[in-house]
């Protein structure tokens, strides 16, 4: 009886279908997955502005041979019973003894003196919430309030009146800022600004008034 007949007979007796893998063409272990020329998408230039599919790949030299696990996986560099394994075993035994001691202390009703009780996540969350709720008042950002524009009599202003008032206030601030910058320049250099210097000072005054500095 051949091997195939023996496997088939055994599968019938046990009640399951056996899968028999046969060798593929060329001695391959698995079916060939080589693409046909029509399936190849990689192209190469052949001159004259033309492109053609690349040629077929060469077959591997190790077709039909199984690779050992030693060529694919890291193998132990030391023999069994080495110093490192003994050290790991000693550390494991020490952890086991410490766990037994903790279990005995817990069973006897006495807590281990060398260990500190760990904070529970629920307690940590409560503590964090308490810290966040006790912020200083000065840390809160100042809220911006709309300015109430009023006339000399205390009555409200129309939109056009408010625009005129804003423009007048801005012009006064700009005038004061220009005078301040020119005065500082004159005191520092002993002369008033001229030409480009005055233009730069006026531009600085406009930018500071616009930004509200």
Overall description:
The chain is mainly alpha-helical and 213 residues long. The chain has a domain of 47 residues. It is 46% helix and 4% strand. It is built from five helices and two strands, in the order αββαααα. Strands 1-2 form a two-stranded antiparallel sheet. Strand 1 and strand 2 form a beta hairpin. Helix 4 crosses helix 5. The chain is extended, with a radius of gyration of 45 Å. It starts with a helix and ends with a helix.
Strand order of the largest sheet: 1-2
**Beta-strand proportion:** under 5%
Based on Cα principal axes, name the global outline: extended
The count of strands amounts to: 2
Written as H for each helix and E for each strand, in order along the chain, the element string is: HEEHHHH
Q: Which structural class fits the helix and strand makeup? A: mainly alpha
Mean pLDDT: 76
Radius of gyration over alpha carbons? 45 Å
Instruction: Give the helix proportion (percent range).
Output: 40-55%
Low-confidence stretches: none
The main sheet comes to: 2 strands, antiparallel
User: What is the helix tally?
Assistant: 5
Distance between the termini: 102 Å
Structure, briefly:
With 213 residues, the protein is mainly alpha-helical.
């Amino acid at each position: 009886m051949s091997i195939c007949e023996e496997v088939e007979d055994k599968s019938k007796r046990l009640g399951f279908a056996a899968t028999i893998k046969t060798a593929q063409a060329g001695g391959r272990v698995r079916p060939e997955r080589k693409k046909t020329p029509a399936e190849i998408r990689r192209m190469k230039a052949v001159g004259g502005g033309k492109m053609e599919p690349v040629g077929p790949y060469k077959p591997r030299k190790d077709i039909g041979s199984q690779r050992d696990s030693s060529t694919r996986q890291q193998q132990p560099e030391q023999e069994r019973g080495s110093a490192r394994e003994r050290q790991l075993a000693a550390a494991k035994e020490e952890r086991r003894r410490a766990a037994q001691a903790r279990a005995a202390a817990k069973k006897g009703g006495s807590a281990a003196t060398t260990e500190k009780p760990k904070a529970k996540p629920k307690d940590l969350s409560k503590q964090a919430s308490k810290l966040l709720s006790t912020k200083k008042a000065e840390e809160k950002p100042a809220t911006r309030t709309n300015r109430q524009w009023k006339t000399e009599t205390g009555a409200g202003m129309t939109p056009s009146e408010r625009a005129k008032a804003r423009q007048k206030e801005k012009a006064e601030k700009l005038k004061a800022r220009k005078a301040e910058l020119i005065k500082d320049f004159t005191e520092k250099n002993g002369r008033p600004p001229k030409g480009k210097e005055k233009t730069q000072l006026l531009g600085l005054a406009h930018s500071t008034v616009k930004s509200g500095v």
